[in-house]
Amino acid sequence: LAPAQTWEAKLTQAGDGDTAEQVAAAKSQAWGELVRERKLGYLALLRNVRNILTQAPELVDELCQQLADERAVRKSLVFPFQFLSAVEVLKQGNLSGAGRVMGALNTAIDHSLANVPKFEGSTLVALDSSGSMVGRPQTIGSLFAATLVKATGADLMLFSDDARYVSLNRRDTTLTAAQSIPFISGGTNFSAIFQRANRAYDRMVILSDMQGWVGGGAPVQPFADYQKRYGVAPRIYSFDLKGYGTLQFPQERVYCLAGWNDRVFEIMQKLDRDPEALVRDVESVPLED
User: Fold this and answer.
1) 271 and 235 in contact (C-beta within 8 Å)?
2) Residue 149: CB atoms within 10 Å
3) Per-residue pLDDT averaged across 253-278, rounded?
4) How far apart are CA 132 and CA 228, in angstroms?
5) Is the pLDDT of residue 249 over 70?
6) Radius of gyration over alpha carbons of the chain, in Å?
7) pLDDT tens digits for 36-72?
8) I need a labelling partner for 29 at 20 to 30 A (CA). Which of 94, 169, 187, 270 fits?
9) Residue 137: helix, strand or coil by DSSP?
10) Residue 8, Cβ neighbours under 10 Å: how many?
11) Tally of helices (H runs) and strands (E runs) in the chain
């Protein structure tokens, strides 16, 4: 498309009809041209799944083919959690062709594992399965946990009142593996992560709403005991899935992260290499007089 004729502009123009029928026909035609001529980037295609199925359901075959295109997925550098909104859209409504598109998304999510960077050494993913995680935090946490397990070979632990290791079926799709993770309910005991960890890890990724009242509060001493027991000083990536801004044990090599975008793995890689990486990034920004 010419610079002035973006896909957004094309759809806006299609909404200028005099009647609802004219608008519907124009939008269906516009989506047809955009999809069949591959004028939508991969992320734009993904973000418009609902619109395409609603306004141009006859495009379902082409939509599925493009979504599941391994080369397109890898070129887009999209990560598994960026499919979540499209997956939730398909679950919410009785959209024509939704089942077929869900199958294409399952395939695409697995292709996107190749875009997840590899981390040197061993990783433990500790996923909060307490009662307060029900809903979107549970969905996000499960998908992110399954992504790290499948893409990097990380170990998976669930914690609530206590903690335990669980295994995922590596042959399941990433989405199926995420949905298979059980939730225990109960309280949130961060200390149990370090009490039950049975090997030395280079990093631990904690996925939680960071609301912990069980086991004596912040796990400062259990973390210290774990480090002494295995002679390690792992990096802790503490993801706050509800945005409360809570960090359970602020100290060196413990990083509080929030938000889900295409930079999350880049940030983790930077901190893996240099604990002061983000500070250096801020200091490198020139200030105007």
Assistant:
1) yes
2) 23
3) 79
4) 31
5) no
6) 22
7) 999 999 999 999 999 999 999 999 999 999 999 999 9
8) 94
9) helix
10) 10
11) 14, 6
